[in-house]
Amino acid sequence: MMKNLFLKVYDWLSGVKPLPADEKLEFKIELGKLVVGKLRADQGEWIFNYSDDFRRQSQIKPIVDFPMLDREYRSQSLWPFFALRIPSPKQAEVRQFLERMPEDKVDEGILLKEFGTRSVANPFRLVPA
User: Fold this and answer.
1) Is the pLDDT of residue 8 over 80?
2) What is the mean pLDDT of residues 84-90?
3) If you ran DSSP here, which 8-state letter would residue 97 be given?
4) pLDDT tens across 13-23, in order?
């Protein structure tokens, strides 16, 4: 429900296709030298889980969207924590990227891989594995 409200208010991803069922992606989430966790895309589903190193430390709190350290999170749609990393297709750099790509190849996973490494919204890095 919160995500639906988020998407209505910040609908810059309108027109971007969701993750196709056959796309496989994997990202490491890093904070400095610490690997916080892993985000994967598999069979049309997004999967997030924390790393063992993150679970063993106690200085950094869990990400708000993922409060339980030992749980594997699964979703058909990309969580706002990660969706915020995809810039609007209206931005010049994104438009140019979209114009170079075959239309059937552009989806939220490809845009996250291309543009999602850093975010002004948080200090975490999203590194394609």
Assistant:
1) no
2) 80
3) H
4) 666 677 777 88
H or E element in which residue 41 lies: strand 34-42
The rounded distance, in Å, linking the Cα atoms of 96 and 101 is 9
Structural domain boundaries in the chain? 2-128
Residue predicted with more confidence, 104 or 62: 62
Distances from the Cα of 68 to the Cαs of 16, 59, 72, 104, 121, in angstroms? 30, 15, 9, 36, 22
Q: Which amino acid does the sequence have at 83?
A: A
Quote the DSSP letter at residue 104. Answer: G
Dihedrals phi, psi of 119, to nearest 5 degrees: -145, 140
**What residue spans of the chain are helical by DSSP H?**
2-9, 52-56, 80-83, 92-100, 108-115
pTM: 0.81
Distances (CA, A) of 35 to 1, 39, 115: 29, 11, 19
Contact of 112 with 86, CB cutoff 8 Å: yes
